[in-house]
């Protein structure tokens, strides 16, 4: 098993990406610290892989933008599971936000959820990993860290901030044996609604703008996260991996691979 007894902190265990990553890493023997936003215990993350396998999980509900909550939570989780080995930051809040009409409160909400949380978690987990001179940090970000959405400039700004955080962290934490990498997640099913825009045609017939006309899935994401968390990626540090099936290479509609 590639992650036997490794402890993984996942910042958004409730999301589709979170569930897919948990299932893939659990199959390789990982244990988990799972942050959930679920209000009731009946909604909390409890993947089938954790019910039937040997993986252990500590399920928490903390404000990722407050170091006063994240730091003691990680310290307590380490006492229960052992030292944290891996941070997967997959927090991903998208809300319509146009430059000319966006309220300051909404801008701060999106920036906090996606970018500030990445800083707080990186700092807290990074210190614990640095003490042992080993670890992995994986940011599940977006192609919109460099490509406008046309629907939420605040989302793009937040992901751009995470991209530069990842580079800075790779440089500094890399000196302590910690690999830091970022995944620029491309389109999956439903993204045409998430990024619906009145000014951008990027997501019009978007499934056909992937050269092979096959969208990626969160299970595909889980496979890539596993690689970056494994010893096989020991020399991968500071990488921005575009994970979009070639989506951003597309620019001519009449060249799309559509069904006959």
TrEMBL record:
Q: Keyword Oxidoreductase on this protein?
A: yes
PROSITE patterns under this entry? Answer: ADH_SHORT (PS00061)
Asked if the Swiss-Prot or TrEMBL record annotates the protein with the keyword Oxidoreductase, the reply is: yes
| CDD domains documented for this protein | SDR_c
First and last residue of the signal peptide: none
Q: Which InterPro entries match?
A: NAD(P)-bd_dom_sf (IPR036291), Sc_DH/Rdtase_CS (IPR020904), SDR_fam (IPR002347)
Give me any GO biological process, just one.
Answer: bile acid metabolic process
Entry keywords, A to Z: Oxidoreductase
* Molecular-function GO terms, alphabetical: oxidoreductase activity, acting on the CH-OH group of donors, NAD or NADP as acceptor
Return the similarity comment: Belongs to the short-chain dehydrogenases/reductases (SDR) family.
PANTHER family in the cross-refs? 3-OXOACYL-[ACYL-CARRIER-PROTEIN] REDUCTASE, SHORT-CHAIN DEHYDROGENASES/REDUCTASES FAMILY MEMBER
This protein is called Short-chain dehydrogenase
Origin organism of this chain?
Answer: Paenibacillus montanisoli
């Amino acid at each position: 098993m590639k992650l036997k007894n490794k402890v993984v902190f996942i910042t958004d265990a409730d999301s589709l990406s979170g569930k897919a990553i948990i299932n893939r890493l659990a199959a390789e023997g990982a244990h988990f610290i799972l942050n959930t936003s679920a209000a009731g215990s009946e909604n909390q993350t409890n993947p089938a892989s954790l019910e039937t396998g040997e993986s252990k999980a500590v399920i928490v509900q903390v404000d990722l933008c407050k170091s006063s909550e994240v730091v003691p939570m990680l310290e307590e989780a380490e006492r229960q599971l052992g030292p944290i080995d891996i941070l997967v930051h997959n927090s991903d809040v998208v809300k319509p936000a146009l430059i000319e009409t966006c309220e300051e409160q909404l801008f701060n909400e999106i920036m906090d959820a996606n970018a500030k949380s990445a800083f707080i978690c990186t700092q807290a987990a990074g210190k614990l990993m640095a003490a042992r001179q080993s670890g992995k940090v994986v940011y599940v970000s977006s192609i919109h860290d460099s490509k406008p959405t046309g629907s939420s400039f605040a989302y793009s700004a937040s992901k751009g901030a995470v991209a530069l955080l990842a580079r800075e962290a790779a440089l500094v934490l890399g000196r302590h044996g910690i690999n830091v990498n970022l995944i620029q997640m491309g389109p999956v099913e439903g993204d045409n609604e998430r990024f619906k825009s009145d000014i951008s045609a990027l997501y019009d017939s978007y499934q056909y703008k992937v050269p092979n006309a096959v969208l990626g899935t969160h299970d595909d994401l889980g496979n890539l996260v596993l690689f970056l968390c494994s010893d096989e990626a020991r020399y991968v540090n500071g990488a921005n991996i575009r994970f979009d099936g070639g989506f951003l290479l597309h620019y001519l509609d009449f060249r799309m691979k559509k069904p006959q």
